[in-house]
Amino acid sequence: MIDHIGIPVSDYPRSKAFYEQVLAAIGVSLVMEVTPEQTDDGSWAAGFGRDQKPDFWIGNDPRGVAAHTHVAFTVDNRSQVDAFHAAGIVAGGTDNGAPGLRPHYHPHYYGGFIIDPDGHNIEAVCHRPE
């Protein structure tokens, strides 16, 4: 249903490095970068995804980072949730829920949560039984 999502960041180079490291753990990489010369407002933007399609965007919005966002990335297995969470901690994120089952969502919901450098709650989730 959703084609892509974007979130504002306060320090573009720091957040770009953070997401390059964290998303690599789940097979997602930087596939496109938009320079200030290419945007209407002079901002930078980075698009991350698979197969050369950017699905998740960060950008240094000149209006600032007003509210925190929650984004969940679907992964294929629980070990990818574990790798995502570990990479998030190493990259400077803060634990917001260790990888594990969340049966209150459904019996096979396995997720791990990290707070990114701007306070956004990012998650990797596997819905498959393992």
What layout of secondary structure does this protein have?
Blueprint (H helix, E strand, L loop, with lengths): L4 E4 L3 H13 L4 E6 L10 E6 L2 E7 L10 E5 L3 H13 L3 E2 L4 E2 L8 E6 L5 E6 L4
Helix pairs in contact: 1-2
The shape, in one word, is: globular
The number of helices is: 2
Structural class: alpha+beta
Provide the CATH architecture: Roll
Helix and strand sequence: EHEEEEHEEEE
Overall number of structural domains:
1
Q: Please bin the fraction of helical residues.
A: 10-25%
Radius of gyration: 15 Å
- CATH H level, superfamily name: 2,3-Dihydroxybiphenyl 1,2-Dioxygenase, domain 1
CATH class descriptor? Alpha Beta
The fold-level CATH name is: 2,3-Dihydroxybiphenyl 1,2-Dioxygenase, domain 1
The biggest beta sheet is recorded as: 5 strands, mixed
Calculate the mean pLDDT score and round it: 93
**Number of E-type strands:** 9
Low-confidence stretches: none
Distance from first to last alpha carbon: 26 Å
Which structural traits does this protein have?
single chain; 130 residues; alpha+beta; 2,3-Dihydroxybiphenyl 1,2-Dioxygenase, domain 1; five-stranded mixed beta sheet; four-stranded mixed beta sheet; 2 helices; 9 strands; 20% helix; 34% strand; globular
Concise synopsis of the structure shown:
With 130 residues, the protein is α+β, with helices and mostly antiparallel strands. Helix content is 20%, strand content 34%.
